[in-house]
Amino acid sequence: MLLAVLSPVRADEQSERVAASFVLALGRGPTVAEARQWAGPDVSFADLMAKHRQQLQGDAAAKRTVVAKAFQDAVGRAPTAQEVAADSTGAASYTELVQQHVKRMAGDAGEYAQVLNRVYQLVIRRDVYPEEIEYWKKKRTLSFTVLVGCVDNWGRRNQPGLMVTAGPAAVSINCVFLTTARLSPVAAAEARAAAGLPAVSDPQAGTNLLAAGAEGVATDGRMHFAAASKE
Predict the structure, then answer these.
(1) Angle at 118 between CA 101 and CA 2, to 5 degrees
(2) Angle (deg, nearest 10), helices 60-75 and 144-157
(3) Structure-derived torsion over alpha carbons of residues 95, 2, 174, 222, reported in degrees to the nearest 10
(4) Do residues 131 and 138 touch, judged by C-beta distance below 8 A?
(5) What SS3 string covers 138-187?
(6) How far is CA 122 from the centre of its chain?
(7) Domain span including residue 30
C-alpha cells in the first residue's frame, strides 16, 4: 500500500521530511511500513537523501526500478532495456535522473513535441495543438510529469469547452495524476538543497514545486510540495 497522495493537512515536520525524501529519491511515496520504519528522532534531509542513495547503491533491483520510473516520469514512456542499463550505474536519485533527461530534451525539439503529445493524450484525450507546442516552447523545458500536472490544472480551471492552453502554468497538490508530499517552507528549502534542486528565487511568485524540471511552475495556494507521478 502506497501513500499515493499525502494529506495536505500539515503533519509533523519529520514525517514531512521522510515522505518527501521518498518522493525525491525514489519517485514514490513511502509504504505504511516504510513511513513507520523511518519515523523517529529528527534527521536532516541531507541525511535522509544519503541513506536513500546508499540503499540504491547496494540494491541493483531497486536501482533499476528508480531508473525506469525516472525515465517514464521525464519523457512519458517506458524505457527500453538498453536505456535502463545505461542509467543503472552509480547511485543517482530519481530527481537527479529526471534532471538529466530534462536537460537532454531541452536540446531536442522533436522529442519534446512527442512528450507534449503524450501529456495531452493522457490528460485530455487529444493531440497537442501546434499553438500549444509553441506555448510550452516559450517556457523552460519541463518533465512529462510536471507537464501533466500543469495541463490537468489548466483543464480543471477551464472546464467546460477547453480550447487552447494559455495563461500561467500551475500544479495542484491534489492532482489525481501525482504523488505529492507537502512541506513547510523551511523544510522545503532544506529539501531543495539536499536533492540538488534550485532555490526559489522569488517566494512570492508561488514557484514552490519540488520536482526536477519544474522551474517557473507555480503551485496552487503557493504550497511547497514534492511531486512525482502516481504509481
Answers:
(1) 75
(2) 50
(3) -40
(4) no
(5) CCCCCCHHHHHHHHHHHHHHCCCCCCCCCCCCEECCCCCCEEEEEECHHH
(6) 17
(7) 13-229
Separation between Cα atoms, residue 100 and residue 186, nearest integer Å: 26
> What pLDDT shows up at residue 203?
57
pLDDT tens column, 151-198: 999 999 887 767 899 888 999 999 999 999 999 988 999 999 999 998
Return the bridge partners of 229, or none.
178
Please report whether residue 5 resides in a domain. no
d(CA 23, CA 229): 9
The pLDDT value given to residue 213: 79
What is this structure's pTM? 0.89
In a domain, residue 20? The reply is yes
Question: Does residue 109 lie in a domain region?
Answer: yes
pLDDT of 204: 54
Q: How far apart are CA 206 and CA 174, in angstroms?
A: 16
pLDDT at 161: 67
39 and 212 in contact (C-beta within 8 Å)?
no
Task: State the total domains in the chain.
Answer: 1
Residues of the chain with pLDDT under 50: 1-11
In a domain, 1, yes or no: no
